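Most newcomers find our protein records easier to grasp once they have seen one. To make this concrete, we reproduce a full record directly below:

…
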Amino acid sequence: MFRLFKKKEKIKRELPPGTIRKEFHFEGNVQNIGFRFEVQIHAKPLGITGYAKNNDDGSVTAELQGTQKNINKVITYLKNIDRIQIDSITEKELPLDCYENDFYILY
């Protein structure tokens, strides 16, 4: 049969030394204010990959993969945006994703 849509192949990429992946869980005033977009705006220029998504309980989860230094920069940016009120942040280490190549927002 004809294959009209070719399945995208995932390409494994070599990650720079010092690359880590962390999941962050943000609670506070973090929905309906552009929080996920702020994460993306600050993560992409630093070469950070991953995603941000809203949770049903009003919190936001973000997975960030990059250097510790650049991930810390993103978290610092988020803490200093006036319209965002982060009451708590929890984080945990995750295994690296060698197939991921961008930062996106989950809906």
